[in-house]
Design brief:
The chain is an alpha/beta fold. It has two domains: 7-152, S-adenosyl-l-methionine hydroxide adenosyltransferase, N-terminal (Rossmann fold); 168-269, Elongation Factor Tu (Ef-tu), domain 3. It has six helices and 14 strands. Strands 7, 8, 9, 10, 11, 12, 13 and 14 form an eight-stranded mixed sheet that branches. The chain has a six-stranded mixed sheet with strand order 2-1-3-5-4-6, sandwiched between helices. It is elongated. The chain starts with 6 loop residues before the first strand and ends with a strand.
Length: 270
């Protein structure tokens, strides 16, 4: 049986018109020619660490065990934040210690974390503005060649994380949830899973409907698919990441409702 090529993913805010992502790939294949490099995206809004964290959360489990995920949205590059290597049972994550791995830390058991300090696994000299190329790319490449995580630096047991808002039960059948993310289709992703919704639902409830302070467009109910939904009317749907979303058929639910990340909505159930 052929040996599987090591998989390294890249997620950045570098865009597609700049040389930065290509420079990282060049470093990786120079050190590990067998690497299979997968672009998650390079279109994260500039400096938007929470967006990057959510996007990584939405896809990292679909990769084979042992995949090395490199995430570089790094407005503090060259400053006091540390470069880190975070390990779980199935994956490694390489990037800045700025909260970009918050969803990973919330959903996975951390098996190890190391501050990346070993200079011989970096390019020289290290640019103060491009750790993606000079630190994170070579570390990922050497890691894929079998270098132990312990070799990259000292253990670091308190990686930075931002608080992921949890739903708040207001009363029987009423729950408050935060907008975690708005995707390119205008789907409004709420921090509420099906299990959490079920826990808050009164017996015999008919399904959720939205209540927003100050009024607004009301979602029409809970659906399983986009097909058949009336155009111009938002609705609830559980999306592929497992969270409840406010969506619209061939339209932007975010534009219709005015909701954005960080807003809160109240949902009545039944």
């Amino acid at each position: 049986m052929a040996t599987r090529r090591p998989v390294i993913t890249l997620l950045t805010d570098f865009g597609g018109a700049e040389p930065y992502a290509a420079a990282m790939k060049g470093v990786i294949v120079s050190i590990q020619p067998e690497a299979l490099i997968v672009d998650i995206t390079h279109e994260v809004p500039p400096h938007d660490v929470p967006a990057a964290a959510f996007i990584l959360h939405g896809c990292y489990r679909q990769f084979p065990r042992g995949t090395i995920h490199v995430a570089v949205v790094d407005p503090g590059v060259g400053g006091s934040r540390l470069p880190i290597l975070l390990s779980t049972a199935d994956y490694h994550f390489v990037g800045p210690d700025n909260g970009i791995f918050s969803y990973i830390l919330a959903g996975e058991e951390m098996r190890g974390c190391h501050a990346i300090t070993a200079g011989h696994y970096m390019l020289s000299p290290v640019s103060s503005t491009f750790h993606g190329r000079d630190v994170f790319a070579p570390v990922a490449a050497y890691l894929s060649r079998g270098v132990s995580p312990d070799s990259f630096g000292e253990p670091f047991d308190r990686p930075a994380r931002f608080e992921i808002p949890r739903p708040q039960v207001l009363s029987a059948g009423r729950i408050r949830a935060a907008v975690l993310h708005v995707d390119r289709f205008g789907n409004v992703v709420l921090g509420l899973t099906a299990a959490e919704l079920d826990q808050a639902a009164p017996p015999g409830g008919a399904g959720p409907r939205l209540r927003m302070a100050g009024g607004g467009v009301e979602p029409s109910g809970l659906r399983e698919t986009y097909e058949g939904a009336p155009e111009g009317k938002p609705f609830f749907l559980f999306g592929s990441t497992g969270y409840l979303e406010i969506s619209a058929n061939r339209a932007s639910a975010a534009a219709m409702t005015g909701l954005k990340r960080g807003d809160f909505v109240e949902i009545e159930i039944g």
